[in-house]
Design goal:
single chain; tt1808, chain A; four-stranded mixed beta sheet; mainly beta
């Protein structure tokens, strides 16, 4: 998709990725989690550097996701079809 802006229509988005802000984590963990499910974005990946975790949500339905996968930095998380690959988290570092 070509765009001059940093936005995409929700109906063409296949994944949303957020890096949790240390000053406003609720925005990613509550508001966006609900909003992306409502928009039916198939995958939502949250990188939470505060606690060295990556969380993948999938299977959106109404205002929530049905599936949640948590992995620690240093592990691997499987990004399912539409993409179908393993994401290596070994290069991620916590805030220090």
């Amino acid at each position: 998709m070509e765009s001059e802006r940093n936005t995409a229509p929700a109906d063409v988005a296949l994944i949303a990725v957020e890096i949790v802000s240390p000053s406003n984590p609720e925005n990613d963990w509550v508001g966006k989690l609900r909003d992306y499910a409502v928009m039916r974005i198939p995958l939502y990946l949250i990188v939470d550097v505060r606690n060295s975790m990556v969380t993948l949500f999938s299977e959106p339905d109404h205002d929530r996701y049905h599936t949640r996968t948590d992995r620690k930095f240093g592990e691997t998380v499987h990004i399912p079809e539409l993409f179908g690959f393993d994401l290596d988290l070994s290069r991620l570092d916590p805030y220090g």
